[in-house]
Amino acid sequence: MSHTVFWLIAGIVLCLMELFLPTAFIEFMMGLSALVVAGVSLIVPYFGLQVVLWMIVSLLLVLLTRRFLPKRKVYEIEGSTEAQTLTEILPGQTGRVLYEGNSWSARCAEMDIAIAPNQRVYVMRREGNILVVMPQNLLSS
């Protein structure tokens, strides 16, 4: 019976932790799994087997709920928009550009091209916090 109380307390604590420390329902699924194992512990008295069952049920619930959560948003830039380099962008490295009034990290779409400071560039796409740009003179020629 003490194992049942342990799993009930663990399940309730994990579910409540999700309210205060959100983890995209990971803690909540682990808490639900603990509550399921609390019920199973009335039938299966072996604590080691209960822990293995809790881990398996937790993993399955987390994987199943991932299918229903919204996907991460992919940031696309509609068409090519203009920006201006603030620093030099060396080949294969990042520099800074002024885009829509803010300073952004940027790298050139072509890895073997350097872009000088104060040069107009076109923003091709966004990869995380880095803009991928092309020099205006390459695209207009």
TrEMBL record:
Record field: transmembrane: 5-26, 32-64
Membrane topology per record: Multi-pass membrane protein
Entry GO terms, CC: plasma membrane
Domain of life: Bacteria
Secretion signal, residue range per the UniProt entry: none
Cellular localization per UniProt: Membrane
Domain NfeD-like C-terminal: 91-135
UniProt keyword annotations, A-Z: Membrane, Transmembrane, Transmembrane helix
Pfam families: NfeD
PANTHER family linked: INNER MEMBRANE PROTEIN YBBJ
The name this protein goes by in its record: NfeD-like C-terminal domain-containing protein
Taxon lineage: Bacteria, Bacillati, Cyanobacteriota, Cyanophyceae, Desertifilales
